[in-house]
Automatic annotation (TrEMBL):
PANTHER family: LYTIC MUREIN TRANSGLYCOSYLASE, MEMBRANE-BOUND LYTIC MUREIN TRANSGLYCOSYLASE B. It comes from Lysinibacillus xylanilyticus. This is Lytic transglycosylase domain-containing protein. The lineage of its organism: Bacteria, Bacillati, Bacillota, Bacilli, Bacillales. The chain crosses the membrane at residues 20-38. Residues 151-189 form the Transglycosylase SLT domain. The keyword Transmembrane applies. InterPro entries: Lysozyme-like_dom_sf, MltB-like, SLT_2. Keywords: Membrane, Transmembrane, Transmembrane helix. Pfam families: SLT_2. It comes from the Bacteria. The keyword Transmembrane helix applies.
Length: 231
């Protein structure tokens, strides 16, 4: 029987060591390059946007109801104009209509819209029909007329500039709430006083302040995340 000859290695042991010695620094260089390339990619807007979205999603997990993202820029715009924390506006919205998710935006006592204004508060208590709880006898046209609101000293605001101050328009409603809270002390830090003015109930104040404090823990983070997403 003929013995099979052993195949000789293509490279001698010393040559193999030489190749390994050559490849190691190349592999390290590639890894370092890949690391810094990945870091550089992470600075691109798409990665930053994804990071902001993830951060916002994680924050929202701390709330019993997520704050609808489409409302947050409106809260922030109202904060910038009236000096009322956007988190306070969100808290009121959460308590009043569960972020406008209720089937009806008219309460049993006649409060209307996303932020539940009594008609007399919206158009102004100087209106001749206003008394009692403030339902009044006010036509829809008069209720939403900025000129009438100015005449009767109301808090309704035409936030989007369409010539109508509408408590059923989300922008107008939020800006009107900010206007009311601001003029009743919230812009000066008298948050509790302003909330009590909004609804003369200690239980109501407690509920609003609970959500205000909860949201306020993330005031800047949410504001920055939303601002970046809008770029």
């Amino acid at each position: 029987m003929t013995k099979k000859k052993k195949k000789k290695p293509m490279l001698s042991p010393s040559a193999q060591l030489g190749v390994i010695a050559l490849l190691v620094p190349i592999a390290i260089t590639v890894c370092v390059f890949a690391f810094f390339a990945w870091k550089e990619l992470q600075t691109l807007p798409i990665f930053e946007k994804l990071a902001r979205e993830k951060e916002l999603e994680e924050i929202q997990q701390n709330f019993d109801m997520k704050i609808p993202e489409q409302y947050i820029p409106i809260y922030v715009a109202a904060e910038e104009k009236y000096g009322v924390p956007w988190t306070l506006l969100a808290a009121h919205h959460r308590i009043e209509t569960r972020f406008s998710s209720m089937k009806s935006l008219v309460s049993s006592v006649g409060a209307e819209g996303h932020l539940q204004f009594m008609p007399c508060t919206f158009v102004g208590w100087k209106h001749p029909s206003c008394s009692g709880l403030g339902k009044g006898d006010i036509s829809k046209t008069e209720l939403m007329n900025p000129t009438a609101i100015k005449k009767y000293g109301g808090y309704g605001v035409d936030a989007n500039g369409d010539g109508i101050a509408d408590p059923y328009d989300i922008e107008d409603a939020i800006f009107s709430a900010a206007n009311y809270l601001s003029k009743n002390g919230a812009a000066d830090g008298r948050i509790k006083q302003a909330v009590f003015k909004y609804n003369h109930s200690d239980e109501y104040v407690e509920k609003v302040l609970h959500y205000f404090n909860l949201y306020n823990d993330y005031h800047d983070e949410v504001k920055e995340a939303i601002a970046y997403k809008e770029k």
